[in-house]
C-alpha cells in the first residue's frame, strides 16, 4: 500500500469531526484556516462559531467595523490576522466572490501559500498540496529530510514533495488526512510510532532520528520590555486609548502608561497611586513584557494626550483589549481598590 493510500485508510478511522469539514463554503473554510494559524483547535472552535454566528457570510463580515472584528477576536492574539481577515473580506465582496484557485486566493490580504492551498483544496477541489507544520513533520520524518523547513530552499523542496505525493483523486481528503496524521499520530513529541501504519517505511524511525526532524535553522530572538500602566478612575470613568501602527497590538485599546503623563501628573500619581501588581510576565512572539499596574483615583481629571477617551468603568467590556490588559484588569478586580466589571 502506498503512502497516500495508507494515510487515507488511517483517516477513515481517525478523522477529527470539525464543522468546517462539513461544508464547501469557502467563507467558513477560510475563516477556520485564519483562526487556526496560531491557535489550537480546542480554543479556535469557539471563535469560529462566534464569527459564523455574528457574521454568517463574508458580506456580513466585510460590513462590520474593524473595532467589532478586533473585539470578537480578543484573546486569540496575533491581531494582524483579524485586521487582514477584515480587509480580505472586503476584497472578496469587491470582486463579487471568492477566487477559486490557490494562485488567485493568494492575492487576498493575509492569505499565504498554505491558506490559499487549503481553501482551494477544501472548497474548490483544486489538486494542490496543503503544507502546514504537521505536513512538514510527517514528510521530514517519513523521507528522512534534514533540509531546514524555515528556509526558501526547504519550503520549495517540501512543497514539491507534497505535490508529488498528492493523489489525483480524493486530494482534498488526502490533505485533511496528512494534517490530522501529523496532529494525532506523528506528533512533535512522543509520536505513536509503535502503532504507526507508516513506520516500516519511515526513514526517521529506521534511523532513530524521530526527535531530530524536522529541522529549523532559525530561532526567534525575544527582547525584554518593561511597561507601567495606570488604571485611572475619575468619576466612575477610566481612561483608554487605541494603539496605533508600528508596534504591538495595533488597533487595540489599552490603559495609560506612565509615559503618557505630563510631569505634573506624574508627580501626583507617584504620590497617591496604589500598586496593584508588579513584574507581570507576558510572552509575545518577539518580546517578553514585564508589566506593573497601579490604581489611581485623582481628585481632578488628569491631563492626557488628545487620543485618550474616558469611558464608564462598566463599558470597558465593549472595547477590544490585548490579552495582557485582560490579565491586569483581572488582577485589579480581585483587589480591594475598586469595583470593576468582570471581563
Task: Tell me what the structure shows.
This protein is 43% helix and 13% strand. By secondary structure, it is of the alpha+beta class. Strands 1, 2, 3, 4, 5 and 6 form a 6-stranded mixed β-sheet that branches. The longest helix has 15 residues, at 80-94.
First-last Cα distance = 53 Å
Poorly predicted regions: 339-343
Largest sheet: 6 strands, mixed
- Please report the number of helical segments: 14
Mean pLDDT: 93
Task: Bin the strand percentage.
Answer: 5-15%
The structure class reads: alpha+beta
- The helix content is 40-55%
Rounded radius of gyration (Å): 24 Å
H-E string: HHHHHHHHHHHHEEEHEEEH
Nutshell version of this structure?
The protein has helices at 3-14, 26-35, 41-54, 58-63, 66-73, 80-94, 102-105, 113-124, 133-143, 152-165, 171-185, 203-206, 263-272, 323-333, and strands at residues 223-234, 237-242, 253-254, 274-283, 287-296, 308-312.
Amino acid at each position: 500500500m502506498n503512502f497516500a493510500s495508507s494515510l487515507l485508510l488511517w483517516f477513515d478511522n481517525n478523522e477529527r469531526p470539525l464543522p468546517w469539514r462539513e461544508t464547501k463554503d469557502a467563507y467558513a473554510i477560510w475563516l477556520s484556516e485564519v483562526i487556526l494559524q496560531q491557535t489550537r483547535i480546542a480554543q479556535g472552535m469557539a471563535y469560529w462559531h462566534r464569527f459564523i454566528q455574528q457574521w454568517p457570510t463574508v458580506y456580513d463580515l466585510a460590513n462590520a467595523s474593524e473595532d467589532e472584528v478586533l473585539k470578537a477576536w480578543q484573546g486569540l492574539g496575533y491581531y494582524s490576522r483579524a485586521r487582514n481577515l477584515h480587509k480580505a473580506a472586503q476584497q472578496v465582496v469587491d470582486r463579487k466572490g471568492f477566487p477559486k484557485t490557490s494562485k488567485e486566493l493568494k492575492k487576498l490580504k493575509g492569505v499565504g501559500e498554505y491558506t490559499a492551498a487549503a481553501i482551494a483544496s477544501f472548497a474548490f477541489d483544486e489538486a494542490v498540496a496543503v503544507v502546514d507544520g504537521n505536513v512538514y513533520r510527517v514528510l521530514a520524518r517519513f523521507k528522512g529530510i534534514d533540509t531546514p523547513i524555515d528556509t526558501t530552499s526547504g519550503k520549495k523542496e517540501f512543497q514539491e514533495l507534497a505535490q508529488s505525493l498528492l493523489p489525483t483523486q480524493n486530494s482534498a481528503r488526502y490533505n485533511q488526512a496528512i494534517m490530522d496524521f501529523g496532529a494525532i499520530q506523528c506528533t512533535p513529541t512522543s509520536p505513536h510510532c509503535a502503532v504507526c501504519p507508516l513506520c516500516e517505511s519511515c526513514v526517521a524511525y529506521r534511523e532513530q532520528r524521530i526527535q531530530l526532524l524536522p529541522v529549523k535553522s532559525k530561532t526567534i530572538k525575544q527582547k525584554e520590555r518593561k511597561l507601567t500602566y495606570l488604571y485611572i478612575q475619575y468619576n466612575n470613568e477610566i481612561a483608554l486609548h487605541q494603539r496605533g501602527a508600528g508596534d504591538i497590538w495595533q488597533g487595540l485599546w489599552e490603559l495609560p502608561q506612565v509615559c503618557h503623563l505630563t510631569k505634573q501628573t506624574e508627580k501626583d500619581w507617584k504620590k497617591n497611586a496604589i500598586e496593584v501588581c508588579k513584574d507581570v510576565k507576558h510572552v509575545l512572539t518577539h518580546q517578553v513584557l514585564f508589566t506593573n499596574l497601579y490604581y489611581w483615583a485623582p481628585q481632578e481629571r488628569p491631563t492626557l494626550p488628545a487620543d485618550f477617551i474616558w469611558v464608564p468603568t462598566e463599558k470597558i467590556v465593549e472595547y477590544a483589549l490585548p490579552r495582557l490588559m485582560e490579565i491586569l484588569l483581572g488582577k485589579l478586580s480581585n483587589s480591594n481598590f475598586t469595583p470593576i466589571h468582570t471581563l
